[in-house]
Amino acid sequence: MKGHLPAGMVRFPVVYFNYKEIAMDTRRKVTQIGLDVHRRFSIASLRDGSSRIVARQRLEHADRNGLRKKISNWPAETPVILEGTFGWGWMSDELLAAKMEPHLASSRKVAAWRQGRGLAKSNKLDADLLGELWDQKPRWWEVWLAPQEVRDQRELLRHRMSLVRIQTGVKNRIHAVLHRHGIITELSDLFGVSGRRFLSRLVEDEQALRETGRRTLKDQLILLDALRRLIARATRQFRATVRHNATAKRLTTLPGISTVLAYTIMAEIGRIERFADSRCLLRYSLLAPQADDSGEERDGKPIGRRIGHAGRTTLQWAWIEAAHGAVRKDGSLRAIFNRRTNNGKEDRNRGYITVANRMCRIGYAMWRKQMDYQEVPPARPGSMKTGKTGSVKKREELVSSGNGPALPPYGHTPRLIEA
Q: Can you name the CATH fold of 24-143?
């Protein structure tokens, strides 16, 4: 019947405050706040020590001074839970400035929790649900709240990625102009030095291209030059950051990792301390193998095997991109690739993923221990006194040729020296 609650549920009295300040007695009761952030406004749900809702507030984003005044009226150091959706960054900065304690909740987990409880979705109910999360022990819902410095690094990274993506589109349109007019060239790189000279002559050639084609090609080349300047400027910022950051500089000692890839890995990881071990970083990097295989045991490969879906795809790309260069430069990593791909004859993509998995483990150890990479690992304590034995030399020769086993074993990561 309308107005009745299901058995076991209790209705608590709620006060919806539309005026600017919360009453002093209500303010003393607040112990946790759920904040549902939208583009133009936010809804705050304030709860007391018994998890009862004592007040709700609407915060208008356009009135930033009014928003700050309402936040400052909340009790200091109160935990505020907000979802990790669009807009949480600037709101967390405002909460920290007001001496609040912001916590970030996984939107995927919160949505599954809401659906599992059969709750409807609305602005008011979402804020109430976020406020209720604080009572959940352990905090299964919480994800890392990246500080402002890391978010700025990621913003510059996303900016350069978007510029490169636009540049690729411009190059494709230039190829399309030539294709539409039947112009064939044997140049390997249409946008290298020789290719640009060819395109510049083509813009002035009235017989090869009609006026519309020449105008389109000229505008695309102007746009391409502007994009290249912007990408170069962002790359210079990457280099400056890596040059003055000890961790990023150390990552460049790992084979296959360039300045851009080192900056990407540093920005996406943020703080290595938030990962308990290398396995956690592997899952975050979407490089840890997983399988959805239950029921009766069977022979062969697991069913539904994959490398994860909840993580940083940009970080996954960076490790796999680095693996392509590492296989060419490093003997031990090339040996891992050869074993997985039958010396490069089959399943090469999975081979690069296997090498990326290994590099991620090494990178984790380098970052945590503040040590540089070395292809030949130091001797284990007690294995030999001085020099290299014949067996060690033989293993190193096999590794350098790409025919021997990886050195050291897969579960051991001493491939490091002190910086």
A: Nucleotidyltransferase; domain 5 (3.30.420)
